[in-house]
């Protein structure tokens, strides 16, 4: 019986606390009136969305990467020149005989150096280079179309939200006008 009384008191208190905490209230770090709003046009909203949308930024970077890959694929046709230099150092070698009792140091040329020069011109690769260039160009076109599609999707989403808000504001104005007309009719009765 004692447990029932405690739980009966505790549950309503907990429910009221949760209702109190779940009320939507604006909280500010400083006490200030709400920031004044400004009217913004649809064109401004669309331009801000096109500048700041993350998907659109990713599509732009993917398109730029595809352009660079086309340039890189075209570079495979150009002649190439490679230069290399190497250097080795071998310490004093020792020949061990008779379980390390008669070791012999060999006088040896310890430093070795070399260089190489390679030049080439791709003459024929079985169409591999041209096929690779064509594939990269197709990927670039696809990325450009993805960029256009993403921009169109962002514009559509922003316009839809803008007009949804516009309709809600118009409905609120109509409801306010209806309330005023009803109040006038009530006064006339």
In helices, the fraction of residues equals: 55-70%
Unreliably modeled segments: 1-25
Q: What does the radius of gyration come to?
A: 39 Å
Main beta sheet strand tally, sense and closure: 2 strands, antiparallel
- Cross-sheet strand order for the largest sheet: 1-4
**Averaged pLDDT:** 81
Give a count of the beta strands, DSSP E runs of length 2 or more: 4
Content of β-strand: 5-15%
Total number of helices: 4
Count up the domains. 2
Q: State the shape.
A: elongated
Q: What is the element string, with H for helices and E for strands?
A: HHHEEEEH
Structure notes:
With 189 residues, the chain is of the alpha+beta class. Helix content is 60%, strand content 13%. The chain folds into 2 domains: 41-78 and 127-189; 79-121. The protein has helices at 2-22, 42-52, 54-74, 128-188; strands spanning 80-89, 94-95, 104-105, 111-120. Strands 1-4 form a two-stranded antiparallel sheet. A two-stranded antiparallel ribbon has the order 2-3. α2 (42-52) runs antiparallel to α4 (128-188) and α3 packs antiparallel against α4 (128-188). The longest helix is centred in the last third of the chain and has 61 residues, at 128-188. Mean pLDDT is 81; it is low at 1-25.
